[in-house]
Amino acid sequence: MYKVLLADDERIILEGISSMIQWKSFGASLVGAVQNGIEAYQLILRERPHIVISDIKMPGMGGLELIEKVSRDHPSIRFILLTGFGQFEYAKKAMTYGVRHYLLKPCNENHITASLESVIDELKKEESAERVKTELDLVRPHIQKHALRELIKGDKSDADAYLRFFPDGKDIRIVLFSVQGEGGGHLSTLEKLAGGILASSAIAAVLIKGVLVIAADGEEHPDRLRDKIEHIKHQAGKQLQVQLQAAVSRNGDIREAAALYDHASGGLDKQLVKPGGQTSVLINKMLDLVQKEAANPKLSLKWAARNMLYMNPDYLGKLFKQETGEKFSSYVARVRIEKAMAIMKHTGGIPIGELAEKLGFGDNPKYFSLVFKKYTGYTPSEYRKKNEKSRR
């Protein structure tokens, strides 16, 4: 039911309109009839009517002031103004607040009925349009997903039909995320994770050939977009225990989606494909990490995988051995001993306990000595003496 409120300082007009109109025949109900603008405003706040039939001149608060206050906070409420002869200047001002319906006093039943029918028809059309918009908003992400896939495939025949589901003249960047190793099962979860972090920047997302493809708003500052991508990679490692590779295309119109996808794919391939005989980007990261963290007593495959590289440690260990031919723990020990040997060459008198602590063995010089001998054939003391003889 559409709720209607009457406001006029003449009781005879209030009673006349209240009784002459068959409210239910319009699908409406009269929720109040008041004689001044202040009462009308209080009743509007309480009842939230759809339509207010109001006189322009009333005590306390005139019709124009009432319209101004109500339009500011409740713009959907419609007004039908009752005007006396010579009050059309007020009506003109009311038009600036969107009022389009005026009745000249005294008004008969036909005039009021025609205005009510017109306003209610407007409300019904707006409600119908809002329902369609709501339904379209619900299905839009699914349509955009399909449209993005087809645009990337380069289907020119249907391009215009798909483009209407995206904002006109929208510039985008194509962002690709690939899961290293056997992580394809995480792509659906990754899509939700990335969508949450990119938020309104993500226009549409689709999975193509085991890669998450996102059309991101081209107006997003490149540095901010990169920060979000790094955050996604970090959270994917933390929450999903997977390592991501990402690539971003240049900026371009959404009509160029296919070319932008190819541009981003080229960047992703460079990260994922390793030249013959060389280690991949991921393993290079691990090698650099060991060099930087050699003095850290917590350094281990599990620690590196979960705290720095955000990957499954078992998969990471297999990949490291496959590419380097050496277990991660053996490589860490070798790097530490090589660093110890370099320090001893330049600082002959450093105590063994201090050296062990400097190289991640904590307060366990005995274990350090055992590892040192395993890799060099000498105890630290023997190696020091050997170096001193060679310097003489």
TrEMBL record:
<dbReference type="GO" id="GO:0000160">
    <property type="term" value="P:phosphorelay signal transduction system"/>
</dbReference>
<dbReference type="InterPro" id="IPR009057">
    <property type="entry name" value="Homeodomain-like_sf"/>
</dbReference>
<keyword id="KW-0963">Cytoplasm</keyword>
<dbReference type="GO" id="GO:0043565">
    <property type="term" value="F:sequence-specific DNA binding"/>
</dbReference>
<keyword id="KW-0238">DNA-binding</keyword>
<keyword id="KW-0804">Transcription</keyword>
<dbReference type="GO" id="GO:0005737">
    <property type="term" value="C:cytoplasm"/>
</dbReference>
<dbReference type="Pfam" id="PF12833">
    <property type="entry name" value="HTH_18"/>
</dbReference>
<dbReference type="Pfam" id="PF00072">
    <property type="entry name" value="Response_reg"/>
</dbReference>
<feature type="domain" description="Response regulatory">
    <location>
        <begin position="3"/>
        <end position="120"/>
    </location>
</feature>
<dbReference type="InterPro" id="IPR001789">
    <property type="entry name" value="Sig_transdc_resp-reg_receiver"/>
</dbReference>
<dbReference type="InterPro" id="IPR051552">
    <property type="entry name" value="HptR"/>
</dbReference>
<feature type="modified residue" description="4-aspartylphosphate">
    <location>
        <position position="55"/>
    </location>
</feature>
<feature type="domain" description="HTH araC/xylS-type">
    <location>
        <begin position="284"/>
        <end position="386"/>
    </location>
</feature>
<keyword id="KW-0805">Transcription regulation</keyword>
<dbReference type="GO" id="GO:0003700">
    <property type="term" value="F:DNA-binding transcription factor activity"/>
</dbReference>
<keyword id="KW-0597">Phosphoprotein</keyword>
<dbReference type="InterPro" id="IPR018060">
    <property type="entry name" value="HTH_AraC"/>
</dbReference>
<dbReference type="InterPro" id="IPR011006">
    <property type="entry name" value="CheY-like_superfamily"/>
</dbReference>
<protein>
    <submittedName>
        <fullName>Two-component response regulator YesN</fullName>
    </submittedName>
</protein>
<keyword id="KW-0902">Two-component regulatory system</keyword>
